[in-house]
Amino acid sequence: MNLQYNFIMCETFGLFGGTFDPPHLGHLILAAEALEQLNLSRLLWILTPQPPHKEQETVSPPTARLEMLRLALRQEPRFEISLVEWERPGPHYTADTLRLLQRQNPQAELTFLMGGDSLRDLPNWREPQEILRLARLGVMRRPGDTISLEALEQRLPGLSRRVRFIEAPLLEISSRQIRQRAQQGRAFRHYLPDEVYEYIQKHYLYRPGPPASL
């Protein structure tokens, strides 16, 4: 007798949020490490209009950041852009975004990517227990970075079971640093994918004077 079984494959989505102003090689390397180490089927780059903790900062126009991200990601088919935070009014909190993504992808297992500093601060976030309920945490741990899960567990019971660490290379690259170097007329080309650098140059981003039309 032949028996046939129907299996429902559970996709594993990584969620990588940020303003990505601009997206740089550090972002891409960390995302690639997350894909491999967490065995993710897809990684969604969640482009954030204005994070609640950066309300006083000026960010580049939405069209510019979206286009730079498209240029940066087009070589990796498992990288996708999510506009889940663009398509609803702010403020945008992680728990709200996770609830929406879970409703949109009920068969997917979600892993929210964050840095070690964000993990340490997680008890102070909005609805931290709800975040743990909705997603696993992929924590990008830099060499030499120490995190006490025991101390965090006392504040957020169940946290330890939801954390997986990603061993990532130590890369001293940040979007803010790149913007500052551009503003100061210093070299920044090798921090970025070529297409992103060319877009910044073409549209005169991050430098004094009016940008080209976007």
Would you give an account of this structure?
The protein has 214 residues and is an alpha/beta fold. The chain has a single domain, classed as HUPs (Rossmann fold, 3-Layer(aba) Sandwich). The chain contains nine helices and six strands. A six-stranded parallel β-sheet has the order 3-2-1-4-5-6. Strand 2 (42-47), helix 2 (62-73) and strand 3 (79-82) form a beta-alpha-beta unit. Helix 2 runs antiparallel to helix 9 (194-203) and helix 3 (94-104) runs parallel beside helix 5 (128-134). The protein is globular. The protein starts with 11 loop residues before the first strand and ends in an 11-residue tail after the last helix. The model is unreliable at 1-8 (pLDDT under 50).
Give the SSE string.
EHEHEHEHHEHHEHH
Number of strands: 6
What is the count of structural domains?
1
Stated plainly, the CATH topology is called Rossmann fold
> How is the biggest beta sheet arranged?
6 strands, parallel
Care to give the gist of this entry?
The chain is α/β, with parallel strands linked by helices.
How are the secondary structure elements laid out?
Elements: E1 12-18, H1 25-37, E2 42-47, H2 62-73, E3 79-82, H3 94-104, E4 109-115, H4 116-121, H5 128-134, E5 136-141, H6 149-155, H7 159-162, E6 163-167, H8 175-183, H9 194-203
Parallel strand pairs: 1-2, 1-4, 2-3, 4-5, 5-6
Helix pairs in contact: 2-9, 3-5
Features:
214 residues; alpha/beta; Rossmann fold; six-stranded parallel beta sheet; 9 helices; 6 strands; 16% strand; disordered N terminus
